[in-house]
Amino acid sequence: MADIEVLPEFHAVCPAPFGWVAVAVEEDAVREIRILGQPPERTGIPEPLAETVCRKLQEWFAGGDWPQGIPVNPEGTAYQKKVWQALLRIPSGETLTYGELARQLSSGSRAIGGACRRNPV
């Protein structure tokens, strides 16, 4: 039997150069952004914040600036959230290796990689 993936309720879905982007919000913050191969069959009730995020992402895909000031509150462990907050502090256009981020956070690079892999935003 094939695995069944349960998708959270998305509040906006928009086309992207690589497929579709679905946005879920909760309490005035983005909970999840997911890349999809095709649009989901159903979505939740449209939310203004989710629609704004889709619009900003589409502007970025078209060559605009990286969206700034979008409130995010993804679900995760305290450690994952610590790593995700550190990712938000990386300036646009710059890169940081897992090892460099691990040194900044006094952690291991594999743990950093695991947290990055689980980042829903």
TrEMBL record:
This is Methylated-DNA--[protein]-cysteine S-methyltransferase. One of its GO terms (molecular function) is methylated-DNA-[protein]-cysteine S-methyltransferase activity. It comes from the Bacteria. GO terms for biological process: DNA repair. Keywords: DNA damage. Residues 79-121 form the Methylated-DNA-[protein]-cysteine S-methyltransferase DNA binding domain. Signal peptide: none annotated. It comes from Thiolapillus brandeum.
